[in-house]
Structures are given as structure tokens and as C-alpha cells.
Design goal:
53% of the residues lie in helices and 12% in strands. With 384 residues, it is of the alpha/beta class. The chain is built from 13 helices and 10 strands. α4 links the parallel β2 and β3.
């Protein structure tokens, strides 16, 4: 039985899982690098229609002072920037008034203190949409900075008659330290998933750090009515409900990238991941299961490879050991090529030395976030 297990079952299982991983990497994760090489020759908007940039802020004075000028100084013919801030103890109002004196197309208002039992983030976005003058809405956050003054033009080139949603790319700024490498890798991999799915014609989510959609789409969907009871979901759940292969485009050119300020504390990022775990389980469509199956196949691949190597060494099955090593090495080289091409296209870190470590640990820490979500009270994720 041991010989049969070593020579047949484990190598066959490893081979099947290797093929599964190959399909994911070449058929999904590699989409962004090839998408970035695509040259738009037809079906592109060159008229730069007027648009409204909407930002909801809370306790963000320093971030607005640092990042907002890069948004209001975009090289774009006609646009407005609307900041809705959640009243707080900082001097955000004074900061915005000073900036408005410099930039006449910048406006701000505040979420009233009387607003209770509703997500302030969703209320702020709704207020911004109702105050906006233009049909196209572009969303970002106070801790985000566009990498060029062509950000809006790159997003707007996708505003074709058939388009209702444009998904952009965002990731954390590059600084030294293990935490930065960890969360940058996690964000890159998640972006390769949801943007790759969108490029493949199966969009299932978006992030409000770099996102655009039509105002009419918001009203057609009745805003966030279907998940108004949740604290979050104003971006990922909304896009999950409205995006399809015909109305969604992806923009990942270097000029369209958005950099996120590193959080001061690790727990801030952890809370974001736990909140995402609370909303992602509500995704409709097959994407949630497709992505979940990749994670499962990855962990099973590691398990079968390690088991095959261990048993092969114990029973001196050197041919089987060689097959296992070859499968692991081939997958690693394929993975390295896909990540390097994508990272280069998106101006990211290459992760060459850390790729095997993060590849194994990423499902583990995301599993921890899901467990933490389950251990918390349900009302912690409800509007308040």
C-alpha cells in the first residue's frame, strides 16, 4: 500500500494540482501584464468628458494636506473635487477651506452629527454623488496619491458609450520593512485576481481607492440599498452587483496608478482585511468560488509535494522524488515569471526572494482574518 501510495497516488495528485495552478497563473494571474501591453486603437474616448472626484474623509487632515493637491492639480480640462468629511476632532474643515481658496474647483461639506444608524462612509458617498454636477464619478480616498497628473485622463479614456464602470489599480507606497512587503504582496495578488477576472470578462469587485462609474448606474441600482445594513461594502459589493463583461473596463497604465499611504499601525490593515472578509462572503456569482478553489489547490499542492518528497526519501523512491522536485521547481519558475512581468507592468516590487514564503503564508494569514471575523459579534459589521 505504501509503495502504491508513493508511486501512484501522490505523484498523480501533485500533477493534477500542478495543472490546476498552471491554469490559474497563465489563464488569470498573467492577464494584467498582457492587458498593459494592449494598445487602444479603437473604442477609446478622447473627448475627456467632465467628471466629479469624490472623497470621504475622517481624521485625515495630514493625509489631505499631503495628497489632495495631487488630485486637484490633475491635467484635465473640466472636473470638480468634492470632499465629504466626517466631523472629528482634527482641523479638517480649516484645511479644506484653505485649499478651496487655492483651487476653485474644490468643494467640501460634512456629514451631520445627527446621522445615526447608518454607515457614515456610504452616507458620505451618497452626499457627494447628489452634490456632483457631472455624470462620470471617480472615487478615491484621503490616503491615496495618484502617480501622475494624467490619472484622470487615463481613467477617462475608458469612458466609452458602452462603459459604466472603470476599475483602476492601487497599492501601498514602497517603504522599507517586512510589513510593507507583506501587505504590498497581498494587495498585488488580490489585484491580479479581481482585475484579472475583469479583464477576462468576469468582474466581481472593485476598490474605492481607484474606481469610476456613471451616476446613472448608482441611481439605477438604488445606491447601496441592498446592503445598507452593513458598515462597509460601498465599493466591492456595489461593483459585485452592477459589473458585467459588457459594462466594465480595466485601467492599469503606469500613469493611472494610485499609491496608498502606509498605515501607522499594523492593526489598521488587519481591520481592513477583517472588514473585507465580512463583505466578500456576500459576493454573488461564481468568482468567489473560483478564487477560493485556487487557494485550496495551492495549499493542497504544497501538502502533496511535501508528502511525496518525505515518503520518497524514506522509501528511497528517487524517481518519484525527482518528479516532485521538478513539479515544484516548474511551478515556482512559472510563478516567478508571471509575478515579475506583472510587477514590472505595475511598477511594483519583484518579490523574487520572498515569493515562496509569501505564496505559502498568504492563505494562512487570510484564513486568520476570516476566523477573526467569525469570532466577532455580527453587529460589529453593521451600520452604526
Amino acid at each position: 500500500m505504501e509503495l502504491f501510495t508513493t508511486d501512484i497516488i501522490l505523484p498523480v495528485a501533485s500533477g493534477a494540482l500542478f495543472i490546476t495552478q498552471t491554469i490559474y497563473y497563465l489563464g488569470l494571474y498573467g492577464k494584467l501584464s498582457t492587458h498593459n501591453r494592449k494598445t487602444y486603437t479603437t473604442d477609446i474616448n478622447t473627448k475627456n468628458p467632465p467628471l466629479s472626484v469624490i472623497i470621504v474623509a475622517k481624521d485625515s487632515t495630514d493625509e489631505l494636506q499631503k495628497n489632495l493637491p495631487f488630485i486637484v492639480e490633475q491635467d484635465y480640462p473640466e472636473f470638480e473635487v468634492i470632499v465629504i468629511y466626517d466631523r472629528s476632532a482634527d482641523d479638517c474643515d480649516d484645511t479644506l477651506k484653505l485649499l478651496e481658496d487655492q483651487y476653485p474647483h474644490l468643494y467640501h461639506t460634512f456629514i451631520p452629527d445627527s446621522a445615526r444608524y447608518i454607515s457614515h462612509k456610504k452616507l458620505g458617498i451618497t452626499m457627494g454623488i447628489k452634490a456632483s454636477r457631472y455624470e462620470w464619478l471617480v472615487f478615491t480616498e484621503p490616503n491615496c496619491r495618484p502617480q501622475s497628473n494624467q490619472w484622470l485622463k487615463q481613467m477617462a479614456r475608458n469612458f466609452t458609450p458602452a462603459t459604466e464602470i472603470v476599475l483602476g489599480y492601487s497599492n501601498y507606497e514602497k517603504v522599507s520593512g517586512w510589513l510593507n512587503k507583506k501587505i504590498t504582496f497581498d494587495t498585488l495578488l488580490n489585484s491580479m485576481r479581481y482585475l484579472g477576472m475583469a479583464v477576462s470578462g468576469h468582474p466581481y469587485m472593485g476598490t474605492g481607492r481607484n474606481l469610476a462609474y456613471r451616476k446613472v448606474l448608482y441611481y439605477k441600482q438604488k445606491g447601496f440599498a441592498s446592503h445598507l445594513n452593513l458598515q462597509r461594502g460601498e465599493d466591492d459589493l456595489f461593483i459585485n452587483e452592477t459589473a458585467n463583461a459588457h459594462n466594465t473596463r480595466v485601467e492599469t497604465s503606469p500613469e493611472s496608478l494610485m499609491r496608498i499611504t502606509m498605515p501607522k499601525y499594523k492593526r489598521i490593515w488587519c481591520e481592513e482585511k477583517i472588514s473585507y472578509a465580512a463583505t466578500s462572503r456576500l459576493f454573488k456569482g461564481p468568482a468567489r468560488y473560483i478564487i477560493g478553489f485556487e487557494t485550496c489547490s495551492r495549499l493542497l499542492f504544497y501538502a502533496t509535494i511535501i508528502a511525496t518528497m518525505t515518503i520518497s526519501i524514506l522509501f528511497h523512491q528517487w524517481i518519484t522524488l525527482g518528479i516532485a522536485v521538478l513539479l515544484w521547481a516548474t511551478r515556482f519558475v512559472m510563478q516567478l515569471i508571471v509575478f515579475r512581468k506583472t510587477a514590472k507592468a505595475l511598477s511594483e516590487q519583484k518579490f523574487c526572494a520572498l515569493l515562496p514564503v509569501f505564496d505559502f503564508l498568504q492563505p494562512v494569514w487570510n484564513g486568520v482574518f476570516k476566523l477573526q471575523r467569525k469570532l466577532r459579534r455580527k453587529n460589529e459589521f453593521m451600520r452604526k
